[in-house]
């Protein structure tokens, strides 16, 4: 690994009028400690700063408009090469760490102007009493330097202490290509849950040729076609349906996701299960957003949005009506989900695409009245199965970056800029 010159006092920040648009450089404080300078967009926005031992400290100073912190230029950046930016911090008095604690890399070209778009460090790991924040990204082709930023944004009672900021050259990530299959089938007039489930398994065996890393079946595979109620087909997890799906997963050496109805004591849930390549139940998700029709038929809503580790990445599950609301997909993306699996009966296609786009994740839908498809983070269907008895199959690369030329990497940027701290009024309350 190659370290990008962070240890010398020879690192220099170019004249502010050349390094960035003038409006953003109206204030660049003169204080400098170990190559770091204090910066704010305007003098009247300048936060309180101090150097206390190993810590670079930024305080809001009781001013809600305060925005700024420590910056440093690093030369020797090579365009097209991947870098990892990390820093450690301790924060207190801060309402929303995700957007008020800001660590960022701004790439610079040979003229000191911005090259490409900045990269936000958005991925957090709690380590004892400190938090490590990081991002990995390729330097734009025209970049020759990087400006590292350790900031505090609009937190009047807040304090953030920074240390161990470093920019490290790393190998480009290897592709994470997986082959995904989503099933379009709606059994009719079956003898019961076992027969309906068996039809799905037969279709997979008949239509999914070769390797599959992830196989997705629709919502409620244990009730569709049976004429029975949700409660009548409800079973434990693990139970008969997960046992049959486990056999499929084991034989195909694939992860398998599907929806069923789960009984737990007196409660019955609309549940999606995920089985690993050995046929074991790796996790389950209980549908949070129940439409009134399911509530009236005795179902209980879930209360969590879990994400599951697989051998190819992180998988999140949603079910049908969840797609009408932004928070299920947002919660899964916030936990690093690479793929959201959507077993669905029927739902809004536009909103489904919005969930993929706004969270920059792959979305795999298997439906009855909703289409069956594999969608990329830009909302494009890379494969679909429009007819019954068909399977949508595609190879997707989970390591690919989907960036906007004007906005940059919206997956991490959205994590850093989303405002979850602004109170939402009680829905429907007019007074």
Description:
By secondary structure, this protein is an alpha+beta fold. The chain folds into two domains: 169 residues, Galactose-binding domain-like (Jelly Rolls, Sandwich); 222 residues, 4-Layer Sandwich (Nitrilase/N-carbamoyl-D-aminoacid amidohydrolase), CATH 3.60.110.10. Helix content is 17%, strand content 37%. It is built from nine helices and 25 strands. The strands form four sheets. Strands 1, 4, 5, 7, 10, 11 and 13 form a seven-stranded antiparallel beta sheet that branches. Helix 7 packs parallel to helix 8. The longest helix has 15 residues. The N terminus is likely disordered.
Quick gist of this model?
With 431 residues, the protein is an alpha+beta fold. The protein is built from nine helices and 25 strands.
